[in-house]
Design a protein that fits this description.
By secondary structure, the chain is an alpha+beta fold. The protein has helices at 57-81, 91-121, 128-150, 154-174, 181-184, 195-210, 218-245, 250-262, 272-289; strands at 9-13, 16-20, 24-30, 36-42.
Amino acid sequence: MAKKPFYYGGQAVMEGVMMRGEKHYAIAVRQENTEITTITKSLPNISNGRLRKIPFIRGIIALIEALIIGVKALMYSADVSMGEEEIKGKSAVLWFSLLIGMVLAIGLFVAIPLLITNYAVEPHFESSILINVLNGLVRLVIIITYMWAIGYLPDIRRVFAYHGAEHKTINAYEDGAALEVSEVKKYSTAHPRCGTSFMLVVLVLAIIAYMFIGRPAIYLRFAYQLALLPAIAAVSYELIRLSARRNKNPVVKALLLPGMFIQRLTTREPDDEQIEVGITALKTVFDAEKTQDTGEGNV
């Protein structure tokens, strides 16, 4: 039986790009002296274990893995871009940053939309289904506005440009193009497996899932929404994974369009030096794994 293809993916970091392979991930960062430094790490065993092959469970594992590796990559890139070469004794800062990020995510995704709905929407409507749908639309507006607003921060704009470089590199690779700046720059900054598209799927599915939780006390609605979130994320992961294998289908392409469009908020057109960093990160993963099978992960 032929081996299933593996979808390479990654993430933008400070002045660099992280690329995830099947058994390793690599980070390439542009230093202040303009040189590119790279580091390669092995993925934990759970990333390639049996649990990673079970539908829905693998989505939860992938998200936890992405959070931990993403924060580690950001910490490393911050140090390198400021002239240091390694992260030493920073595990407490790492986990604190991860905790703060999760609290902010819960606030944006659950708490703030619930408070707005409770005080500004609910007094004017009787239908619990309509109230919960409006709650989902408030959530959607808040998160899209947040992504749009942070794009005006100069440092974030650079990260978004590296996000574009990461997508261009993956698009070129999956199209069979040469991994050279002149070729990679021709490709789009949008990609169907992008984490931004994944977030949009989560937001839409959440509207459907939360429609039927009724109108209990606000603290119960908060608990219900929080409890359902992992399941919604797991289903969203499977949908993104399925669409990746059928992205040439006209119907699937049409369904992917909103996610591709919203990526304009989290990507920018990269310059040649940023594209070079994206290419270096991907080639470093290839060198670590000694394979160039096409393959899986959120981009």
